[in-house]
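seq:
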Amino acid sequence: MDKVVSSSQGAIAGITDGMSLSVGGFGLCGIPSVLITAIHDAGLTDLEAVSNNCGVDDWGLGILLRDKRIRRMVSSYVGENKEFERQYLHGELEVELTPQGTLAERLRAGGSGIAAFFTMTGVGTQIAEGGLPWRYAADGTIAIASPPKQTQDFDWMGETRTFVLEQAITTDFGLVRAAKGDRHGNLVFHESARNFNPLCAMAARTTIAEVEQLVEPGELDPDQIHLPGIFVQRVLPLTAEQAVEKRIERRTVRPRTTTEQEA
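struct:
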């Protein structure tokens, strides 16, 4: 039951070139930066990453993207990474853009044994009808486009509505970060840093959690556990230096007023 590993390289053992990874985080909030760095240092490449976004140019998944280690992304929001945009538009990266709520539910479904589900999100758009560019050719034409998806009408709140079928997502490995974790893999996330982390953990066959604080079994209040240890196979305790290193995507400040300066 003791799932603790002693090093980041030991934590990622078994991840090989070409594998799929579900990676927690939202922007740079709650990303498993230590595990991502370990994958980068190991030289792993040709990866498919499922994550809300792809970090920024020099942090998070952005460091893997920068060195051409990612061949395909399944994402919802990618606006903070200029290199992501460049690779996508130049045909160097395949991208499956997915509505944010749909991405969350596809991951949850994958972890819950649900093969697919119907949703209204995307009906009447290229999400359902197909033709969304997944990969561009070097000349700017579409090399790979999304296929059309099955739709079906249902009686919904007294009216007939069209729904689109979305398939669940499962991955080879999941990488997540938690504020606390015990040796059995039970995890607690800090406020908004929970975001996609539990879902990415659920969807993976093998999940690795880096934890800022390791506690002993029984120390976590069962009612406060956000993700039970059944979804986690390895726990990597972070050092104090690793735990405190967190970045902000975009820092916005306003000029101090005269009153503030006098105070």
